[in-house]
């Protein structure tokens, strides 16, 4: 599992981990969001319909 993930530009100590999601039709959406693995940082970035937004709280939706 040696993968090079981008370093977090906010805290410069964590790395950004990609999160995948699944669309309504079950198709996987790769790398929809990225989160910093440093709990003291909490930086996150997500991509919705081609738009990138940062700094929002990531809320998980349970179906
Ligand atoms: Zn960070």
What does this 3D model show about the protein?
The protein is mostly beta strands. The chain has no helices and 4 strands. It has a domain at 16-54. 0% of the residues lie in helices and 40% in strands. A 4-stranded antiparallel sheet has the order 1-2-3-4, with no helix packed on it. Zinc ion binds at residues 8, 10-11, 14, 36, 38, 41, 43.
Label this structure with key terms:
63 residues, four-stranded antiparallel sheet, globular, binds zinc ion, 0% helix, 40% strand, single chain, mainly beta
Span between termini: 30 Å
Helix content: under 10%
**Biggest sheet architecture:** 4 strands, antiparallel
Order of helices and strands: EEEE
- What is the strand arrangement across the widest sheet? 1-2-3-4
Low-confidence stretches: none
Mean pLDDT: 81
Q: Summary?
A:
This protein is an all-beta fold and 63 residues long.
Secondary structure layout:
Elements: E1 16-22, E2 28-36, E3 44-48, E4 51-54
Antiparallel strand pairs: 1-2, 2-3, 3-4
The site of zinc ion has 8 residues, from loops.
């Amino acid at each position: 599992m040696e993968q090079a993930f981008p370093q977090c530009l906010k805290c410069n100590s964590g790395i950004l981990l990609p999160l995948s999601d699944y669309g309504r039709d079950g198709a996987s959406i790769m790398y929809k969001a990225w989160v910093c693995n440093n709990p003291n940082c909490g930086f996150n970035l997500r991509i919705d319909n081609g738009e990138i937004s940062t700094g929002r709280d990531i809320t998980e939706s349970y179906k």
